[in-house]
Amino acid sequence: MKSDYKFLKIDRHVEVSDLALASSLQYLGFSIVAVNRNPKDHPKVTFVFEKSDELNNVIYRFWEGLLLVEPKAYWNITRELKSRIRTN
Q1: pLDDT score at 4
Q2: Residue ranges per domain, the chain?
Q3: How would DSSP label each residue in the chain?
Q4: What is the pTM of this model?
């Protein structure tokens, strides 16, 4: 898969390699700007999100265990992201 990240400004984006975090962010309405794959780390990918104070706050809350999600919707998003990893 072609990496779109080289065209994005690093100071305006956040790369996330944790699938649970990426699923949580997408569940909460943050859009994935790009999905990057490094051939050296195959099958590891990173999900790129646009940086914001709200995004940073949600990431902090995720790592502190303070987020709540609806399980079925969260799982559907996770399956969709896993599919994007496999197909690209």
Answers
A1: 45
A2: 5-87
A3: ----GGGS-GGGEEEE--HHHHHHHHHTTPPEEEEEE-GGGTT-EEEEEE--HHHHHHHHHHHTT-----HHHHHHHHHHHHHHHHH-
A4: 0.81
